Amino acid sequence: MPIRSEPPLVSPPTPVPTLDELEIEGNVGKIAPDKLRWMPSFPADTPAEVLRNEFETNGVVHVKGVIPREYFETMAETGILKEGTDPTLGIFCGGNPTDFVSADTAKYVDDNPVAKRHIALVFEAVQSDWAKAFCENEHILNFVHKFKPDWAEPFCFKRQIWRSNIPNSEGSTTGVHYDHIFLRGGPPIALTAWVPVGDVHPLQGGLIYLEDSIPVARKIEDGFTAQGRAKGFGKEDALSAFNSNMGVAGMLSRDAGEFQAQYAEGRRWMVANYEAGDVVFHHSFSIHASTTNRDPDGVIRLSADLRYADREHPYDDRWDRAPYHAGDGL
Ligand SMILES: O=C(O)CCC(=O)C(=O)O
Ligand SMILES: [Fe+2]
C-alpha cells in the first residue's frame, strides 16, 4: 500500500491549534491548557537507543512515518460513511452514534440491528487475512525489534482491536488505564503499538498520554495487588481486569481530567497530532486515555491497537487464543 503523502482533504486543512486554543475533552469535561503539553515525536530513522531510552523513561514514543494506511473501504458497507465521499477519508454519515459503537463497547449493545451489523463487520474484519498481515507487517516489527532487542521471536497477539470512534459521540472515550491491567497473565513487558489509521489531529479523539506515568502506574498496580491479597483473591480474580478492586470496564477513571486531579501529582497529559503512517509505541505501564472526537469535518477516528510479546519470554496467552470478540472476558 502506498504512503499517501498529500492527504486529499474535503475541506481546507484544519490548522493544528495551539495548546491554549485546544479544547480537549474527556467524558466529563474539558482539560485546561495548563494541564496539557505536546508529546514529543521522533522520525522513523531515530537511533534505536534514543527510542528505547524514551520508551523506558517516558513510557511512550510517537514515531513518525512508520507505515502505510488504508482501511475505510472495508467499513463502507456498514453505512457508517457519508455516501459519495472517498471511503479512505472516513467521513461519518451523521447518523445515530449509538448505531456505530466501537467493537470494544459492543458488549453494551442489545437489540440495535444497525449496531449489530456494524459490530459483525468489525469482528469479521479483525479475523481477515488483511488484518493479520497488517499486525505482522515488517514496518512495525522492525520497531518492535528496536524497542525489544532481547526478544528472540516477537509476535503480535491474535487479539488485536480496531476502533472507529465517531464524532460527537458523548461518553464514548476510552477511559484512563495502563495496558497491564488487561494483560496481567504475563509480566508487564508487552509492547503496544497504537496505530492511527489516517490522520488523527488533536481534536479527533486520539490517545493522550500522561507524562512520566510509569511510576504512577506501578504504584497503582502494587496497590491493586495488595488489595487482592488482603481479600484472598484466587488466580483468576488476581489476573482479571474486572475484579472487585477495579473500576468500570477495568478503567482507573472514565475521565482524564478527573484522574489527573486525583493521581497525577502535577503531571500533564501529552497530546499529539498523529498523521497517517505514524505509530505510537507504549509501555504496559504507560497511562493513557482517549478524548472526545470533535472533528469539525465529521471525520471518524480509526485506529488499531496491536500488542506484541515474545515467544521466548512469558506472556499473557489469554490474548493469543482467538481474535477479539465481544464477551471474551478480556
Ligand atoms: O484507541 C483507543 O481509544 C484506546 C487504545 C488503547 O488504549 C491502546 O491501544 O492501548
Ligand atoms: Fe491502552
- CATH class of the domain at 36-70 and 137-320 equals Mainly Beta
The CATH topology of the domain at 36-70 and 137-320, please?
Answer: Jelly Rolls
Q: Report the end-to-end length measured between terminal Cα atoms.
A: 32 Å
Query: Using DSSP, what is the number of strands?
Result: 13
Report the mean per-residue pLDDT as an integer: 84
The CATH fourth-level homologous superfamily of the domain at 36-70 and 137-320 = q2cbj1_9rhob like domain
Q: What Rg, in angstroms, do the CA atoms define?
A: 19 Å
The parts where pLDDT drops under 50 for at least 5 residues are 1-13
* Share of residues in helices: 10-25%
Net shape: globular
The CATH architecture of the domain at 36-70 and 137-320 can be named as Sandwich
Look at the helices and sheets and give the structural class.
alpha+beta
Question: What are the bound molecules?
Answer: 2-oxoglutaric acid, fe (ii) ion
DSSP helix count?
A: 7
Order of helices and strands: EEEEHEHHHEEEEHHHEEEE
Keywords:
disordered N terminus, TauD/TfdA-like domain-containing protein, alpha+beta, binds 2-oxoglutaric acid, 16% strand, 7 helices, single chain
Summarize the model shown:
By secondary structure, this protein is α+β, with helices and mostly antiparallel strands.
Would you write up a description of this structure?
This protein has a domain at 36-70 and 137-320: Sandwich (Jelly Rolls). 22% of the residues lie in helices and 16% in strands. It has seven helices and 13 strands. The protein has helices at 48-58, 113-126, 129-135, 138-147, 214-230, 235-239, 256-263, and strands at residues 24-25, 30-31, 36-38, 41-43, 60-64, 154-156, 161-165, 191-196, 207-210, 269-271, 279-282, 288-290, 301-310. The strands form three sheets. Strands 4, 5, 6, 7, 8, 11 and 13 form a seven-stranded mixed sheet that branches. A four-stranded mixed sheet has the order 3-10-9-12, with no helix packed on it. The chain is globular. Residues 1-13 have low confidence and may be disordered. Bound molecules: 2-oxoglutaric acid and fe (ii) ion (FE2). This is TauD/TfdA-like domain-containing protein. Pfam families: PhyH (PF05721).
